[in-house]
Structures are given as C-alpha cells and as structure tokens.
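Example complex used in Figure S2.
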Amino acid sequence: MGSKMSQKLDVRGEICPYPMMRTVSMLKKLSAEERTLEVLTDHAPTLDTIPTQAARLGFETAVEEVGGSEWRLTLTRIGSGDGA
Amino acid sequence: MTSDVAHVLTPPAGAGAPSRDTWRAIAAWALAAAVFVVAHGVDTQFSRFWGFGLAFGFVLQRGRFCFASAFRDLFLLGHGRTMKGVLLGLAIASVGFGVVMARQMPITSIGFNPPTANILPVGVHTILGGVLFGVGMVLAGGCASGSIYRMGEGYVASWVAFAGLMGGLLVSAYTWNWWWMGTISVAPRVWLPRPFGHVGALGLTLLALGAAFVWVLWLERRAGMVLPDSPSPKEASESVADDLRAIGRRVFVRGWPVLIAGAVLGGLNVLLFAAQEPWGFTGEVARWSAGLAGLVGTAPPPPAGADTLPGCVMVPLDGSILNHMTFMVGGMWFGAFAGALGAGEFKLRIARQPVRYAQSLGGGVLMGYGAGIATGCTIGAFFSAIPSLAINGWVFAVFLGVGAWIGTQMIRRIA
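Predicted assembly (499 residues):
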C-alpha cells in the first residue's frame, strides 16, 4: 500500500442515479485516515454529478478514461477533510 | 493533484486518424440514411418522422437530456442544471408554437382549438397520470424518452423499463373507456389564447417559466454550494483541419451542455409542429402493446373518443404494421445508438442487482399507465403541451414533480 489509505468502489452497470448515490454514501463512511476513494463507472452523467457531490463532502475529483465508456474517478480528501 | 479543475480529460487516442468508434458511427449513419431513402420511396411521412426521430434521439443522447433527472435532482441533490435546460427548451418551443398557432387560428374567440396542438382534457386523470408517471420515471431511472435513448446506449435495464412501459400502456388501454366515459370526455380543454389572446397567453407562459426558473435557483441556493460547470478543456489547434476536428469532437464526442440540448430539442419540436404535429410517441408504443396483445387474442377494446383527441392518445389498430410514428420511435432509438457509438459511449451495461430490474419494470408499468390516462409522457403531455399554451401541460408538470418527489424518497430506501 502507498502512504495513504484508499478504498475502491465498482458501480459499473448501475442505473441512474445509483452510481452517484452509492459513491456519496461510501464517501460518508470513509474513516478519517482513508484519504481517497477510487470509483469505477460506465455511467457518463456521473462525470458531472459525482465531482459536485464529492466537493460538498470535501473531496476533489480527478477523472480518467480507462477504456470504452469507462471512467476511473479518484476522489481525494481536500486538506483537513472536514467539508460537508 | 491540487488543481481545482474537476475534469482531467485524457486526449483522444490517435487524434489524427479516425478511431474505430468513428467508423462504427459512420456505418450507423449510413444505415440510417439508407432507411431514410427507402422510407422516402414508400411514404414521405415515414422519412420525415425517421429524420426527426434520429435528430431527437441524437440530441437526447448527446445532451444526456433526461427528464427524470431534471425533476429528481431538484429534490435529490438540490441541482437544477437539467431542469434549466428543460425550461429553456420550453420557452423556445412556446414562442415557436405560439407563432405557428397564431397563424393557424388568428382569431381565438371562435370555439376551435388548433387541431394538432396538445390541448388536452384536464382533470383528475391528468393529476393521477402525472403522479404515476413521476414516481415511475424516478424508480426506473429514466422517463419514456430517457429509456429509449439509454436503450440506444446499451443499458439493459432500460429495455426492461420499456417493456414495463408497454405493459402499463396496455393496462391503461383496457381501462381507457372507463376513464373516457366518466372523466376525460367531460373534462375541459383549456387553451390559454382563448381568454388571454395570443400575446397574452405567450406572455403568461413565459412568465410562469420564469417563475419556475426562480424556484429552481431558490432550491439550488437552499441546498448550499453550487459548483459551476467544469470548463471544457482547451485543445491545441494549429490549422483549419484541427479546428474542424475540434468542432466535430464537440458535436459528436463530448457531451453537449444541457442548455444547448434543451434549446435544440425545443427548436426541433417547433419545426415538427410547423410541419405536422408536436413531438410525442407513447400513443404509438401503446399501439405496439395492443398489437402484441391482439396476437394472443387479448387486444384491448377500441379507444372511445381517440379520434377527437390530439396528443399521444392510443392509435387504434387498423391492421397495418408500419405507421409514421413507428419511424419516430425507431429513429429516436437509432439516433441515440449512433450518437453513443460516435462518442464511444455505447456499451452493454448489465445491472448486477436483481432489484434494479424489478425497479425498472415496475417504474415502466407506472409510467405506462400514467402516460395512457394523461395521453402523453414527459414529451407529449409536458414538453409539447406547455408550448401548446394549454393548461393541461402545467397541471401534468406540477404532478410530475409531486410524483418525482415521492419516487426520490423511494429510491433513497432501495439500496
């Protein structure tokens, strides 16, 4: 493992709006040491909704296309990580 | 890593040569063109509706223009991005429809409504239809048009939702005559230009759309921080060819801003209305359901009063298989499919939780029944009805919102 703890979530195949909802509920459950959440999705609308919701919870989002209509979103806790 | 830009888009692989996605999309559009030519030879109405269907499906897919999320996200996220696109499309269509109707019916005091505009009987069926449709579209993760474009993108659950929609429309067809006798036939059809004149009715409609816009802003403000849309990444351009490629990518590869999609859909709806009739399609889907039921000897009775109603009332069976609206529905699906191919967004998406299929089917049935009694979905009874300057569009919209709110509470409890 790297220096910071991370979690993964695979929401491929999910219907709207569960990719976003499951990401948000996972972000809320992360412990303080867990700095990043990696989300694998094939639902294009989440590229707009997840960064916005993640920012509300104090995370920033990097989007990377990893293949035909699949994206890896890396959500990283900003600073002290106390957003909400 | 500390950049505040939400999107880090990787540049398209091999920006020079057309990708495999591009070739697939070209093949799909070539097939669409061939269907257009053949259909044109049979009946020019067929090719016209095929063309409009392709355009609607393409824009829905490119803009990810989902009426279910427009309503749902107001309550779920306090986000009005999609709803703003819907409101803009409605405003544009209202002006266009207003002009077309003023030419059709210069004098509003005589007792006739523009024959093809979606001025529908408004009553308890509009209210119940709106609520059922609103709940169903949120449960299923997409309304009727949303399910069609997602079918084109490869979402298997959307095919299930469409099957549910057909089932719900069939059930509503069995009960149609009861609704017609007691409620729909005696319900008023209120066309706003009659009391207020053309200019007054359009002004009132635009004012109400403006009020809805303020309400959306208020919901967003109440929900807290609203992030601006992420800026589109700049691409290095050194020649006209590069510029053209950039435009091509903006149209065919990247998602469209929802405001642009809404505006284009509103404009297309005006063109279709000026040519023939407003956008809608659930009446045709109901015809398919009734036809299939007829194959096993359980066809619903002929719908009473259907020939006196505009909008998406069920089309009675007449033994023919093809109808111009068949090309509309098929075109919407195929346009979305071709759009998804070109953007590299087509993928078979199979939901892993069995409950998603139950949700999609149940939501589809609720949508079907709602659209059946309200004679239209988020398109015919809403996106084409408010621009018809008819009160039924507003009543349906309010209760769509109520249904979407109920649906939002339900999906929060279905993990």
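Chain A is about 25% helix and 35% strand. The two ends of chain A are 28 Å apart (CA to CA).
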